[in-house]
Amino acid sequence: MTGATDPDQVRFEDVDWDALDGRRVPVSRRTLAMGAVVLVLAAVFLYDFFLVPTGTPTIPGLGWNVTQLDWLFVLTLLALLFYVVVPLVRNRRLTMHYWRQFRKNKAAVASLAFLAVIFTVGTFGPLVIARPELNVLNAYQPPVWTSVSETVPVECAGPVVDGACHGTWAHPLGTTGQGKDILTLMVFGMRVSMQVGLIATLLIVVIGTAVGTTAAYVGGLVDEALMRYVDIQLTFPTFFLYLLLVYLFGGSLFLLIVIFGLTSWGGIARLVRSEALQRREEEYVDAAVAAGASKTRIITRHIVPNVSNTVITAATLTIPGLILAEAALSFIQLGDPAIPSWGQVIATGRGDLYTAWWISTIPGVFLFLTILAFNFLGEALRDSLDPRVEQ
């Protein structure tokens, strides 16, 4: 029989919790790897900030001038890689179990495929295609599958048949009144939607999970203080705070993401607290307490992992609300005017709905399908990850 010194055969009661809790860095190898990558990313950021001249691309080969928002987006993707993708790959048996439950929902599978395309094109597309440019000679070009006769463009790029201007593959989704290619605008709008949805949701999840689990497990005055703050935050008008900051500093996508990410985690915190209160009463938590594990270790190693299913589902359902909020703010011209977004394009074509319907309709369809896909995905994840739901 293997002795207790074999790390693979150590019994729970033989764990030296004092030694574990006394470590200077009680973190997993995955967290250490994430920290190392973040340090490298921070070094590249400092190089870009202090040594790369203003206006010079950070990555000359791609002509990519990395912005603050891009750095934050890269950090978000790294967090998703280390804390979502890696665990799924390492726990293949459990992942396959979840996948078998998930694929029963055909609409969710189609939504996942659609969102994968949106994510891939939105993330990498702007790196290889040029930003949409003003070209009044190509104004109001119709999509390739249709034609217009009521509105006569300045110069029809496609064939003219019976006085009607037909679309051309040079602009497969048509152009706006400023001659900007709508397909290109859709690609850049995909990146904006993914940045808003993923970055802000990551901030919401991290803060909400930390507050919810701490309040549930510690309890007492800590729970009371945190939950009363959550009550105040939930009644705080985030829109008016953003409106004030736009008035002071101007519209900025980075500002929008930070404001919504730092002020919208109250609902997640309440949900996590409710779930953590149940997990706190489980036998494995009692065993850890009896063995001398610290509160910090119990929260990070026992409570948080066991509420992660609830967090993932809630996060998936939070993303569409953030995307829709950004589109609405861009529609009323409170977004970042320098960054093309779907809401901005919809606003551009609202005065041309009768003569150039495609300008507002096409981005509207993309926005609708993306939000619908996230809702389908969230519902399917809830059914797949929650063992209390009958399959």
From TrEMBL:
UniProt xrefs under Pfam families: BPD_transp_1 (PF00528), OppC_N (PF12911)
The listed locations are: Cell membrane
Q: Which UniProt keywords apply?
A: Cell membrane, Membrane, Transmembrane, Transmembrane helix, Transport
GO CC entries: plasma membrane
- Which stretches make up the ABC transmembrane type-1 domain? 190-378
Task: Spell out where the chain crosses the membrane.
Answer: 32-51, 71-89, 109-129, 196-218, 239-262, 357-378
> Its membrane topology, per UniProt?
Multi-pass membrane protein
The record's listing under InterPro entries reads:
BP-dependent_transpt_permease, MetI-like, MetI-like_sf, OppC_N
Going by the entry's taxonomy, the superkingdom of the source organism is recorded as Archaea
Q: Does the keyword Magnesium apply?
A: no
Assigned protein family: Belongs to the binding-protein-dependent transport system permease family.
Specify the protein name: ABC transporter permease
Q: Name its species.
A: Halorientalis brevis
